[in-house]
């Protein structure tokens, strides 16, 4: 019991001393004691604001994620709808093509091949026609060139033969040269006429007459042929025919007027009145 009482005494003494100390500390305070409470209050408020900010951030993040997820869902739904619509359109178009009676792909390929073959055949035919026309023109031009070359060659040959005939003195040689000219050009009226003149020189009057008739039949405007035939008629004692051919030849060529008095084959016509009147008129 004594120990308990002793303890109570010391406790009372301690309380008294502590009270005195607190009284001294309170009297010595220069600032109010409530300031720590204000700081504590501010810290608590800041803590609560921080917690609310974290909650708000978490909510915003969650809402953004939900919005993104919703956008993705909408995009996927839109894509799915678009693909489905495309397939629906394709199916409808295919059905429409079938309903309208379109042929199968094989038939289309065959049709394309047939059309292509027809077009190729048409183009080939056109090119063949063009090539045939070109070939025909080339052949014609080749013929013309060959004919022209032949004509040039014949002209040169005939010219050289005429040069030879002018140098020959023998009538027989001249007739042979004129025959060569006629072999090259059978319708050479001049060669026929000169050959007839050579035939008259050797006494082949009938031959000369036939040749001159042929020459006049081929060219009725060649005056020298009528002149030579008049000579033939004069030698055959046919004055009327001779005078008639002389008149025709003088009408066709005035240059023969000077030869009228000098032509030796007209000696049989000197006493013919028609011939004399013809001389006077000229």
UniProtKB/TrEMBL annotation:
Organism classification: Bacteria, Pseudomonadati, Bacteroidota, Flavobacteriia, Flavobacteriales
Keyword Ligase: no
Protein name, as recorded: Tetratricopeptide repeat protein
Keywords noted in UniProt: Membrane, Transmembrane, Transmembrane helix
Organism name: Mangrovimonas cancribranchiae
Record keyword Transmembrane helix present: yes
Residues spanning the membrane: 86-105
Coiled coil spans: none
InterPro entries documented for this protein: TPR-like_helical_dom_sf, TPR_rpt
